[in-house]
UniProtKB/TrEMBL annotation:
Solcar repeat ranges per the UniProt record: 3-86, 101-205, 214-301
A GO CC annotation given for this chain: mitochondrial inner membrane
Source superkingdom: Eukaryota
Keywords noted in UniProt: Membrane, Mitochondrion, Mitochondrion inner membrane, Repeat, Transmembrane, Transmembrane helix, Transport
Source species taxonomy: Eukaryota, Metazoa, Chordata, Craniata, Vertebrata
Protein name: Solute carrier family 25 member 48
Name of the coding gene: Slc25a48
Length: 311
């Protein structure tokens, strides 16, 4: 691939770390709403998590995502930026030329980034969700199943991310680390199209023509709006993914994407697929704003540029 640049990967790593720190508490709320039972709404979930587990409950399992999601975002942004650069140069036919940004290039690069993301992000998301969900009371986590009740104070299913990975591999094999991967693929392939494309066009639209690159305000606003759009529209498949990945903390309930959709619809109706929509959209703004700001600022520092360059 001509003009391959490693700076995109390094900047993506920094942006990913920033997004995790900013968005993790709301991500925990989102996961509990989607995969658990017993919460009336977002504020009810926040109150119950705080009452049962104090403020630390919102950061349950954060150490693993902080280390791994930074790497995951590094790959996503690096793959997207280098793929789009390759496509635009191939379209122009000259390696050093800058033919401008094309919607088709952005679309294809976003889809490639979405597909690649599942390979790395599947196990990361699985471990994160298992750690977030393991403090759920057994009857709530497995609503409608007849099995032994587990007291709220009982020992957690996993003793940390490493133990979680080891337990999954031991009980479900290596394939168990990719539980929910098909739902994640269906979420992320269109999701990244609705992430990168709105960001690129919004940041260019907000920036005055006289400026060489988007301002930090344009990056923050465009990144936040793009995140809200992407996460809002991805909510139905995100619900399915979260349920499939949370499944198995105590027992297995679903036999795949279609079975999860069927059971969820039969038991809770159509609105179950929009559970967490509000928190997804609200969380999407600050996390994506932090992601793109971290990416753009670190990319500028790494390249010694005085202007911000969109991914």
């Amino acid at each position: 691939m001509g003009n391959f640049q490693l700076e995109d990967f390094a900047a993506g790593w920094i942006g990913g770390a920033a997004s995790v720190i900013v968005g993790y508490p709301l991500d925990t709320v989102k996961t509990r709403l989607q995969a658990g039972v017993g919460y009336r709404n977002t504020f009810s979930c926040i109150r119950m998590v705080y009452k049962r587990e104090s403020v630390f409950g919102f950061f349950k399992g954060m150490s693993f995502p902080l280390a791994s999601i930074a790497v995951y975002n590094s790959v996503v942004f690096g793959v997207f930026s280098n793929t789009e650069r390759f496509l635009s140069q191939h379209r122009c036919g000259e390696p050093e030329a800058d033919p401008g940004r094309s919607l088709s290039d952005l679309l294809l690069a976003s889809m490639v980034a979405g597909m690649v993301s599942v390979g790395l992000g599947g196990p990361v998301d699985l471990v994160k969700i298992r750690l977030q969900m393991q403090t759920q009371p057994f009857r709530e986590a497995n609503h409608g199943l007849k099995s032994r009740p587990v007291a709220l104070g009982e020992q957690a299913a996993y003793h940390g991310p490493i133990d979680c990975i080891a337990t999954i591999v031991r009980t479900e094999g290596l394939a168990g680390l990719y539980r929910g991967a098909s739902a994640m693929l269906l979420r992320d392939t269109p999701g990244y199209c609705l992430y990168f494309i709105p960001y690129v066009f919004l940041s260019e639209w907000i920036t005055p023509e006289a400026c060489a690159g988007p301002s930090l305000y344009a990056v923050w606003l465009a990144g936040g709006i793009a995140g809200a759009i992407s996460w809002g529209t991805a909510t139905p498949m995100d619900v399915v993914k979260s349920r499939l990945q949370a499944d198995g903390v105590y027992v297995n309930k679903y036999n795949g994407v279609l079975d999860c959709i069927s059971q969820s619809y039969r038991q809770e109706g159509l609105r179950v697929f929009f559970r967490g929509l509000t928190v997804n959209a609200v969380r999407g703004f600050p996390t994506s704003a932090a992601m793109f700001l971290g990416y753009e600022l670190s990319l500028k520092a790494l390249r010694g540029d005085h202007t911000v360059t969109s991914p």
